[in-house]
Amino acid sequence: MTAGDGSQPAGDRDRIVREAPAKLNLTLAVIRRRADGYHALHSVMVPLALSDTIAVSAAEAPPDANATDTRDSPDRRDTLALSGFDLPGEGDNLVLRAIALARAAVAQTWPGAPAEPPPLAAELVKRIPVAAGLGGGSSDAASALDAALEAWDTTLSIQRAVAVAAALGSDVPFFLAGGAARISGRGEFVDPLPNLKGRQPAVLLVTPRVAVSTREVFEAFSHGAKPVRTDAAQEVSERLAADMAAGLGAAALLERAAELANSNDLLPASVAVVPTLLLFRRALARLLALPVGQSGSGPTCWTLYPSLAEARKAARSVEKAIATGSLPEIGRGAPFVAVTKILARPATSPAPRAARAPEGHNVVVSKSDPSTQRHRGESGEPDRR
Q1: Domains of the chain
Q2: Which residues are marked as active site?
Q3: Which of 154, 189, 276, 381 has the most CB atoms in a 10 Å sphere around its CB?
Q4: Strands, E, within the chain: which ranges?
Q5: pLDDT for 344-374, tens place per residue?
């Protein structure tokens, strides 16, 4: 499926490739409803090795294109080729929106100014389930933003990059951190955290094929579908962030699995929206005999393991249970099952074009920035994850 007409990607030598990782909410506390309609959150999020792939290259005009300026013609549009599974709709895809906002942000400062940055041909290979609480669309947007800036040989300041990211979605700024982070506000406060010490934990993901609307989940939360103890998740989330900042080990994180699995304030609300999620999660917990958490507003369930080998063994048990019908099938088909691991921030890596904040630096989107207007984000609400 391709958005736009007429443009063809340049040679492979000009392709800029980015991996767009999934994210996992180890905790998710909903603090209060803000005056702007969003909810203030506190979450510890980590990137996963499971990723989509984004590639961009200069879009070449067709051979018979008119030599005059065709900036506004179909031949001069950004294009997007999609492949993989659970493909998002063209109109809702964040990749083209990310490229467009990046172009607007650098129009006056990129090396070719005052000419407009040229159109790009983007390719997206989807491996992360859509609307699953794993932030796939937000990660795609962050990677497209970074790749577009490299294609135009330009950069953005940390503050401007995060402002552009926040205009795309509440989860997008997290992916500029490049690793674990404490997230607050509606997602615009991103405080990078150190890697867990030791071997990074493995993660088993099981995603029922059922659509869960983030907007509906937050509405259910606002109407009373809340945990019995409303401050418990916040306490766990703040303590986890503090301990990770002080150098928490991977083994110590695994010891907290039960506590973390229960530290998502949206669990009751997601069940209010999709009641069968409760039965599914309970059946999965019985099968694995381990705590099962939920990422974001769901429906993805997660379980932590010390090693990939142990997670793969558990995945085989889940796949067998699906095949025999002992794990209830909800939604429109068999659940998505994947084994991955928490992705550590590289010790040394080149700074991305959409500049990342160093550890300990709190990145804030200015409230006066026009790009903080209401948008269709992943963590903060309006649409679906």
Answers
A1: 2-194+345-372 (3.30.230.10), 202-341 (3.30.70.890)
A2: 23, 171
A3: 381
A4: 2-3, 8-9, 16-25, 29-33, 39-60, 79-84, 120-126, 181-185, 189-192, 202-207, 293-294, 301-305, 336-341
A5: 998 765 556 765 443 333 444 333 232 222 2
